[in-house]
């Protein structure tokens, strides 16, 4: 064969080989790849959307958008998109590139404290390839960035390195016409290794036939991997919470949910597969039917977090499935069936542990109660007390809830319990139990809260496991639960997080899966009136009484319909009750002198309706809803008596009231509702006037009446007026302070705080020991300090008044506000706390008669102050996030709306 022919054949073979190689590479590049198979198995979340621009456009029309654009992830994404815009021909090209294609985003945990995202973007056409190539070329020409291309296990990886900001670095590579992009080169390299191992399986393999994007109004598929969810949460939380996180996460191994968005809500609904490994929570809850959240009738409105379980037999949580009851604790645990709820209440500062309540439903309340009573150490003082219709009992078994229901319910050093309907309520503090029963009694519970109503209506009505978070109430609990690094991040983003005011996460058994629902609710903003958004204040009503008013407005309730009512007094000493809604006068009562202190309400009389208690200079009054005095009233203490304060004690919440007054000479009187002075208080003669009204506390079953005198003496008396050992305490200073008390399980563990006029903050216990003294800065010799307790007595601030200036301090002595005012006239400071950040500071300049309102960030609300010379009263609307401020000015009662931020 001629040499020329041989060369020609060899060349033809080479061409065929090159053609085949090129064709195979082209075919390989054209091969369709399921992007889910590229996602590493350790992804915590994976989000898939088929129309990213539509999702963004929809978000921009909601209240959510303004908040989301303040989060670090979205801010960084916005920066990256802005960069792409600048390097391409404009946003329309970027929008067209992203439009109508399935894009994935996965979240991963790196190390112990970092999280990072990976984006998976298909490149489908020649035009799209050209667009990407142009972007990369322009990026390489930009001075701010450097492109480093390297080979990694057979794939070309490009690192986009910012010369100015490491947070803007990116790494990407292309696989079968798909871009894989991340700020973490480690994650990109992990995906390359996964490809080379030939293990291209989706972490969501269980849901290969599930696609919620085909349903109307669904914007994304969201996959959750619960086996790696603890890794994510543990980057934020303290170590002592990790066992609980691991246990709760072990109910299911994964979820696939469809994302829907409304104006202020994110809905995620779908199904979850149970976790079948040994020791998982599913093993204890398998086979139990979901239960309705009837606890809504008992959970207090001030709840921060509720963990709710629905179980056919609650005892299943503490034993292996199928194992028979063998001990007394087993039998007691098996008497409970239905609902189990662990509730954490709002903490008013980060240093204070949140109060907790355990609710458990009993299938046989009488049996459960009988068995629990066997753990009570007799009926001695402190082991049992009556509170209204309830008996609160102390049980001797340490960590009883943990023994009954498992390790998630630890933390009850001692246990107090009582029964309400077919539920048993457990607390580790008797004061918590008393307050809880009071809240239930007056209807301050979820089922009667306007703010909770939308959440209760939209959530699943039945569940096996539910987590409910009220973000404003849970803020301090959240800060206390996270590590220091996360704490600083939370504080930096607190305004963003707090706008998402409720969160629900529910699982309900449905055949061999759990129907799963997540709702994230954002506070309403778009419906706020423009005038409120602009001015902050909106005076909507006034009521003219034709006579000069001499008192603040006392906020009360109409005894029949419980509507808001305002009680004021005019210069003729006539007391008027005005309906706050209609502005109609409900009743009037002519008195002989000015009302001393406040007007209070308690249920009393023939119909057990709310009646009005108040005092004048020497009389104690009680009138009904028509302003008529009840039988035996008023009580006259003598013409020479000059009363200072009135308080009403109800020792056992049994409506067996004691009326407590003190006069200008330091005499303290306590009488019953027939006007009979009580033994030891007829009167109790002390050596100085009282700095504030006497206060009642119940500690370990014993009544404590705390009295603070202006000359620096502090007394703690029992019912008979006998001083407890260790009292009086002498502080050797002048006092004008109220006392803030936190009742513990004993006298030694009950702490009380006050502030001296010179700014020393003093804490003492009921053994008479001073446990702490701290001195606040006193910039001027004329500076005067005063404790200001909010009306419900749950928290306080400290006010410092200097000539023309007011400074406010928190309970941990952190400066909240420091502001100069127009005049040097006396200032009246008030503090209102309605849970979470719903706080209001009111400073009234009594000279010019102006009241200034400040929010929790010490920012002034409204362009103009409210005209008044007296303190104000405030009601809060949780649904509208609005304060209603009642004030008096000359002869007019004013009602002003203040929009919260």
TrEMBL record:
Gene3D superfamilies: YVTN repeat-like/Quinoprotein amine dehydrogenase (2.130.10.10)
Name this protein carries in UniProt: DUF3352 domain-containing protein
Source organism of the structure: Rufibacter roseus
């Amino acid at each position: 064969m001629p040499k020329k022919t041989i060369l020609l054949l060899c060349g033809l073979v080479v061409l065929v080989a090159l053609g085949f190689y090129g064709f195979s590479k082209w075919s390989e590049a054209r091969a369709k790849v399921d992007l889910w198979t590229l996602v590493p198995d350790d992804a915590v979340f994976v989000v898939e959307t088929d129309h990213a621009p539509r999702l963004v456009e929809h978000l921009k029309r909601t209240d959510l958008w303004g908040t989301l654009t303040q989060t670090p992830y979205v801010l960084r994404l916005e920066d990256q998109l802005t960069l792409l815009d600048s390097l391409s021909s404009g946003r329309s090209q970027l929008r067209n590139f992203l439009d109508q294609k399935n894009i994935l985003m996965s979240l991963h945990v790196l190390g112990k404290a970092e999280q990072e995202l990976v984006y998976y973007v298909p490149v489908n056409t020649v035009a799209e390839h050209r667009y990407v190539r142009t972007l990369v070329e322009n990026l390489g020409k930009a001075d701010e960035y450097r492109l480093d291309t390297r080979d990694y296990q057979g794939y070309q990886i490009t690192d986009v390195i910012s010369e100015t900001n490491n947070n803007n670095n990116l790494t990407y590579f292309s696989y079968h016409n798909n871009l894989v992009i991340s700020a973490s080169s480690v994650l990109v390299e992990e995906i390359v290794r996964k490809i080379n191992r030939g293990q291209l399986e989706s972490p969501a393999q269980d849901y290969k036939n599930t696609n919620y994007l085909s349903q109307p109004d669904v914007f994304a598929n969201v996959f959750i991997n619960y086996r790696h969810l603890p890794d994510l949460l543990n980057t934020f939380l303290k170590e002592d919470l990790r066992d609980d996180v691991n246990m709760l996460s072990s109910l299911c191994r994964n979820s696939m949910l469809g994302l829907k968005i409304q104006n202020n809500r994110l809905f995620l609904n779908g199904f979850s597969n149970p976790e079948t490994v040994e020791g998982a929570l599913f093993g204890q809850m398998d086979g139990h039917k979901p239960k309705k959240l009837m606890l809504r009738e008992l959970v207090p409105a001030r709840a921060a977090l509720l963990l709710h379980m629905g179980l056919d037999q609650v005892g299943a949580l503490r034993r292996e499935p199928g194992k028979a009851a063998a001990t007394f604790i087993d039998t007691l645990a098996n008497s409970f069936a239905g609902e189990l709820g662990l509730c954490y209440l709002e903490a008013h500062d980060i240093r204070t542990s949140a109060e907790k309540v355990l609710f458990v439903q009993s299938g046989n309340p009488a049996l459960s109660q009988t068995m629990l009573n066997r753990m009570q150490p007799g009926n001695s003082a402190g082991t049992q007390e009556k509170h209204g219709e309830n008996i609160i009992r102390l049980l001797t078994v340490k960590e009883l809830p943990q023994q009954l229901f498992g390790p998630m319910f630890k933390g009850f050093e001692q246990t107090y319990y009582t029964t309400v309907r077919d539920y048993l309520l457990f607390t580790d503090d008797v004061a918590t139990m008393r307050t809880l029963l009071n809240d239930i009694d007056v209807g301050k519970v979820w089922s009667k809260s306007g703010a909770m109503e939308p959440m209760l209506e939209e959530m699943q009505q039945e569940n096996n496991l539910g987590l409910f978070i009220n973000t404003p109430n849970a803020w301090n609990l959240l800060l206390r639960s996270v590590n220091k690094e996360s704490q600083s991040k939370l504080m930096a983003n607190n305004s963003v997080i707090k706008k998402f005011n409720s969160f629900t996460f529910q699982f309900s058994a449905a055949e061999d899966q759990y129907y799963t629902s997540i709702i994230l609710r954002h506070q309403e903003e778009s419906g706020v009136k423009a005038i409120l958004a602009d001015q902050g204040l909106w005076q909507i009503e006034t009521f003219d009484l034709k006579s000069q008013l001499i008192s603040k407005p006392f906020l009360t309730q109409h005894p029949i319909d419980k509507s808001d009512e305002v009680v004021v007094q005019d210069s003729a000493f006539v007391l008027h009750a005005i309906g706050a809604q209609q502005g109609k006068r409900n009743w009037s009562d002519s008195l002989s002198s000015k009302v001393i202190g406040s007007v209070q309400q308690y249920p009393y009389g023939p119909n057990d309706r709310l009646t009005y208690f108040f005092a004048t200079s020497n009389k104690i009054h009680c009138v009904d809803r028509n302003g008529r005095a009840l039988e035996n009233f008023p009580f006259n203490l003598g013409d020479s008596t000059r009363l200072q304060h009135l308080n009403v004690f109800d020792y056992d919440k049994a409506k067996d009231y004691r009326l407590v007054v003190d006069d200008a000479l330091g005499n303290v009187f306590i009488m019953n509702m027939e006007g009979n002075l009580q033994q030891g208080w007829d009167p109790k003669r002390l050596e100085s006037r009282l700095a504030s009204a006497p206060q009642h506390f119940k500690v370990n079953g014993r009544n404590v009446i705390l009295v603070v005198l202006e000359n620096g003496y502090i007394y703690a008396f029992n019912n008979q007026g006998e001083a407890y050992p260790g009292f009086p305490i002498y502080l050797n200073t002048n006092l004008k302070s109220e006392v803030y008390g936190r009742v513990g399980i004993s006298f030694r563990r009950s702490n009380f705080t006050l502030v001296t006029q010179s700014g020393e903050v003093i804490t003492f216990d009921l053994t008479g020991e001073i446990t702490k003294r701290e001195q606040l800065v006193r910039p001027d010799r004329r500076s005067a300090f005063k404790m200001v307790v909010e009306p419900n007595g749950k928290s306080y601030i400290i006010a410092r008044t200097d000539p023309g200036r007011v400074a406010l301090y928190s309970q941990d002595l952190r400066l909240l506000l420091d502001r100069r005012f127009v005049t040097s006239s006396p200032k009246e400071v008030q503090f209102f706390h309605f849970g979470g950040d719903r706080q209001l500071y009111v400073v009234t300049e009594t000279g010019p008669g102006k009241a200034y309102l400040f929010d929790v960030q010490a920012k002034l609300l409204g362009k103009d102050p409210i005209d008044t010379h007296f303190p104000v009263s405030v009601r809060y609307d949780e649904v509208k996030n609005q304060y209603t401020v009642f004030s008096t000015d000359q002869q007019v009662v004013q009602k002003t709306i203040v929009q919260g931020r």
